[in-house]
Every structure is written in C-alpha cells, then in structure tokens.
Amino acid sequence: MLLTSQKWHCGIDEEFTSPDALFEVLLKKHGINTEEERRDFLTEQGATLYDPFLFNDMRKAVDLICDAISSHKKILVYGDYDCDGVTATSILVRYFRSHDCDVTYIVPNREEHGYGLTRNILEDVLQKDPYLVITVDCGITNIDTVAELKERGIKVIVSDHHNVQDELPAADAVICAKRKDNTYPFVDLCGAGVALKIVQAMGTDRRFPVNKDVWRQAIELAGIATIADLVGVVDENRTIIKKAFISMRNPSNPGIRAMNEILLEKGSRKLDETFISFNFVPRVNAAGRLYDSSEALKLFLEDDEEEVVKAAEALGRQNDERKQIEAGVYEEAVKQIEDERRPDEWSLANTKGPIVAYAGNWHQGVLGIVAGRLASTFRRSAIVFTTDSIDPSNVKGSGRAYGEYDLFAALGRVSDKIINYGGHKKAAGITLRKADLLEFMKALEEDAKEHPCASEGEDELEITAKLGFNIIGFDTYEKINCFKPYGIGNKKPVFETEELVVVNVNDMTEGAHIRLDLAPADGSTAETISAVGFGMGIYTKILKPGDVIDIAYTMNEYTYKGKTSISLYLEDLKIRSTGGFLWDKPEIAEDLYRSGMELEQIAKLAKTTPAEGLIPSKVEYLACYQIAKNVCNGDTSYADTPLLARLITAESGVKVTPFKVARSLEVFSEAKLVKLGVLSSLRVCIRFLKTEGKTDLKKSAVYMRLLEHG
C-alpha cells in the first residue's frame, strides 16, 4: 500500500484566470525574456545548433576522419548496446557509407563483453584491422584499452557524454563536454547527440559534405536517443528533439518509418516524447538487453523495406520476452526487499540510502529497468545487482535515482568499495567484488546519512502555477504545449486548483485507479471536469461525493469515440479538513508528543480531553489494526497518518484522529504485531508480522503511558 501525499511548493502566488497571462509568466520562468529568445524557444524548428568546432579536439577529429576517407583506410565505429549507443553507431555508419568508405562497426554483447571498450572485446577490434577507431557513447573511462590501441599504431577518436572520472584517455581526439577543460557551451548531450555534432562538423568542413538524407536521419536518430537516455530536455537537446519530430512526420530513416507505421497504426498514439519513451525506445533497447543489438542496428542501417519490417517485428518479440523476464526479476526483488527475515538494519523502515537487491541468477539486461520500477514503487533510489557473467567473483549492478538524489555523486564518495562505475546523476552502472557487497551497502547507507536528500522519506511536488477552474480547457492546453517537448530539466507543468467538490467517485481497472468528476465548490458553474489518478485506487475508499479537495495535476487530452476532451492526470490531492487542531495541524501535535510534552498540554491546544482526542480506545485500537492490516495485505507499506486515519474511519465507521493512529501503531510495534519505521512527523513504514494467539497490549510502554492519562 502506498497512501502518501506530497509537500506542494508553488513558486507563483497568484491564481491565474487567463491563459495568456499564464503563458507570459511561464516564458519568464523558463528564462525567456528577449524577443530573440522568445523566437528561438517557440519556433517549431528550435534554435540554431551550436558550432561543433567549439568542442575540444573537434578539428583534430575532422582532420583524422578526412585523412581516413581520402586515403580509403578502414574506419571502425565502436558503440554501445543501448538505444543511445545503437543510434550513435548508426549515425556515423550512415554518414561513412554515403561516401563509400571502408567502414565497419562493433557493438558489444552485454553478457559477454560488458559495457565500453573493454579488454574482453579488444581482440575483436584488432581482428578488424582498422586504421581509425571512433567510439560513440563510450570510451571516456577506457584508459588502458585506448592506450593499447595507440601502442599498436591505431588512430583513436573517443566521443562520449559520460562523466570523466580521473583522467582522459590518450586518444588522438576526445570529444566529450564532460572533460574538465571543456570549451563547448552545452554539456548534456547524449552519445548520439555527440555523434550528430561530428557529422555536423564534417558538413561544416565541406571536404566530405553531408547530404540532406544523411543529415535528416542523423537528426531523427539523435532525437530518439536524447529522449531515451535521461539527459536534460533543455538548450540544444530540446532543439535536436524538435527538429527530429519535424523530420519524423515523414521519416527519412526506413527503420523509424517502419516502427512508426507498426506502433502508430491504430491512431490512438501521437508522435511525441511519450510515444518515443514508452513504445519506441523499449523495443530498441530490448535487443541489447537480452541478446545482441543486431536487430536494432539492422532496423536503423538497413534500406531494404522487407528486412526493416522483419527487424521491427523481431524487436517487438524481443521486447515481449524482456517484459516477462523483467516482471519475474522485479517480483523476486520486491519479495527480497519485503522479506520479514531481511535483517532489521536493511529494512525499508531503518535505511535512508538506496534500496539494494541482489540475486546471482538475474538477467543483467533488465537490472536497470527493475531498479527504476523499485525506485518508483518504494519512492527510494534503488540498485539491483547480479553475478557478473564475465567474472563470477564480481557483481554487476544498475542503479536509478529517485527524486533529486545524485546517484553518480554518491558512488563517487564510496568509490573505494567499487571496481568500476559510470553514468550520471539519474542512472549508473556499477561493478564490485561480490565479497565487498555488504561493505558497499554499509558505505552507501552511511553516505546517505551524511548527505541527506529531500527525496528520501519526504516527497516534494513542484507546482508550476495555480489555475482557476475557469481556464482548465483547450486554450490553456494549447498554450502550455508550446513548452514541449517535456523531460528532465523541462518537466511537464503541474498545476494546482483549489476548493473543488467531488461530484462522482469511480474506480478503474478493478480498483487500481480512480476517476473523479469535479466542480468548483463555490457553485460558480455546474460544469464538471474529469480527473484520473493512476495508482491512486485506494482513494475510492476515502473520498465520497461532497468532499472538498485541492488537486495537483497535469493537463492532457483524451479522445473517445471520436470526441476529444481535456482530462486531468492527478499527481496528488489534499482533502480539505474542518476537524480542528488534530486534523489541521497533525504534524505539530506529533512533534510536541515526541518532544515529551504531556498529553494534557497537547489536549489543551487541541481543545479536547486526552481520552477523547489523543488516547485510543479498545474499539479504536481494534479498528486501526484490522483496517490497516487488511489494506497493507502483507506488504511493506508507506502511509501518512492523516490519510490512514481517514481510511480507517471510512472503512470501519470508527472515527480516529491521525494522532490516535500514530499511537496505535507505536503500541502494535512494541507488541511485535508490526514492524514500524517512522520516516517523518506524519509518514510511517509498516509491515504486519505473523503472530500466534492473542497479544497483550499492556506490555507496551506506550500503551501504559497513554493509559495513565486515560
């Protein structure tokens, strides 16, 4: 069960009642102040791309490439097995083929070779006998293997976007904006974005120009990768994506055209960043996750329409298989995390840092996806490990950050426990000795305590602006769509609208989700609007018609039977309370109690008696136990006590306050009925334990303390 609310932060105090006024304020919030900035930001094409020769070593790289092409020498493009690496490889190979170059490529196998230009695949590279090796989306940390290629007389260009750890490889050219002496104005390109800049530089140089078709395909591929690779959708990345979507209306790349025709054929999906993220990219990634990336490369590099369609269909089948494997690993990981035999020191209730899960037989290709799902489920950063397929004495892991937790920085602070790691703030890959896994977990946990992050324990929701009910509609929706594409650094606007009355409550998908019909509480209009809360089905047990709520939401359009309307997707909701101090200021009551204040003093503030407002009765203890145990259903659950109190009241008919719920859980914990973690003033982590026979609550010190004041 996840029954929690978030802390809302809105940087704009006023409530907007005009779409135009909202639009102007949002432009300023994005730093758009001049007419030139406004034109660049709002134009469909996006701003002009930066001069690629602002990159350190780009001139060296172009001269090396021109020398290789003019001398008809062999060029090897070395990529990575994920969507970013595959598209980056395809961008350069397509360019070189357009000039009839002697070009080949290698993308490693995740299980056999690992990530990057490792020693495990060096022999395969040497067998190709290249004059020039160009890495894409990797290479920045492969100091030793780059040095060995150089010793053998091979020219090397490293193009990468990952963080530089200690030193640069001794390549002939290093194209990476993360180097300490960087001269490029934008540091957050993905690997395919850097490959695009190399092609752009070749076009600018003009010795071996870039034809229109090659450029369009490069833009399309770089746009897909930019969405796929968790980089900021700002500045030049935003421009690349915008240009990509224009080209992809009638794609130049046959593989993109085939994939779009397959996935968009029903007309229920739009070609936007959501479609690319959740439909297109997973299929491209599936190949490298389970097997090798041959089908993904065929998709982007093949020109024969039949072969391209076969590749797209094969990727679809591989993605279905990936889903099955991923579901199995995720289920096992959750069971491991929630296993009551898991030592207390590693329980969710007692840890602050990332969740860590490990099993020796999990498929390496799905670890990152599973880590992402765990982070979403438990609202905690997560790292998932399995035994290294190359060296069984090691474990390999993939991590995903939750909220504002900087995973890469945290790994850097505990790097003495790690063999190798790479990535960025949101995602990372890690290798360490199996024997060091426990020490790594301890070090990471201590680091989390020393560097607390607002994302762990408490959730914060950034509200873009407050909207009046009257402007929730297509005019506003069209205005905010000018800020697309959305992504990291340019999140979809989240709006707040206050004092709405619940007209209807409906559950969806067997209670998993909720749909509300809402109207202004002041009765200013009889019109209603629909709001959907995905994963918020438990609110169907709490809300009832007539309740007044505030909502935080994103605005979307919904088409049904040919009719398109505006629908709100709930990010959170707050129920308006009229229950006095214990409901209006529950966190203050909790903090006063935990500071040692006598119940009589708290009761005075609450304008009640201790027995009525603060001390649970037998009936209330029973209701708290029965309802909470039922909704937790054997899982480790997170709950905010005000919401849990509302749920218990609604389900049992026994009115309890948040304060009484908190005291009941403390008593149950001391009586060994539940495992309880207190994450903040109002948030708890609960797991009900298996018990035999009756339990005497009087053995609880909290129970006796409360009883003395009864």
Task: Please tell me about this protein's structure.
This protein has 710 residues and is an alpha/beta fold. The protein contains 26 helices and 23 strands. Strand 12 (420-423) and strand 13 (427-433) form a beta hairpin. Helix 8 (191-205) packs antiparallel against helix 9. It is globular and about 90 Å long. The relative contact order is 0.09.
Question: What can be said about this structure in brief?
Answer:
This protein is an alpha/beta fold and 710 residues long.
Low-confidence stretches: none
Strand proportion, as a percent range, falls in 15-25%
Mean pLDDT: 92
**Major sheet, described briefly?**
5 strands, mixed, barrel
Report, as a whole number of angstroms, the end-to-end distance: 32 Å
What keyword list fits this structure?
single chain; 710 residues; alpha/beta
Secondary-structure map with pairings?
Layout: E1 2-3, E2 7-10, E3 15-16, H1 19-29, H2 35-42, H3 58-70, E4 75-78, H4 83-98, E5 103-106, H5 110-113, H6 119-127, E6 132-136, H7 143-151, E7 155-159, E8 173-175, H8 191-205, H9 212-228, H10 235-247, H11 254-263, H12 273-290, H13 294-301, H14 305-338, E9 355-358, H15 367-378, E10 382-387, E11 394-400, H16 407-413, E12 420-423, E13 427-433, H17 437-450, E14 460-463, E15 465-467, H18 474-480, E16 495-508, E17 513-520, E18 529-533, E19 548-560, E20 563-575, H19 581-584, H20 586-594, H21 599-606, H22 610-614, H23 618-632, E21 637-640, H24 641-652, H25 658-670, E22 674-678, E23 683-688, H26 701-708
Parallel strand pairs: 1-21, 2-14, 3-15, 4-5, 4-6, 6-7, 7-8, 9-10, 15-16, 18-20
Antiparallel strand pairs: 10-11, 11-13, 12-13, 16-17, 16-19, 17-18, 19-20, 21-23, 22-23
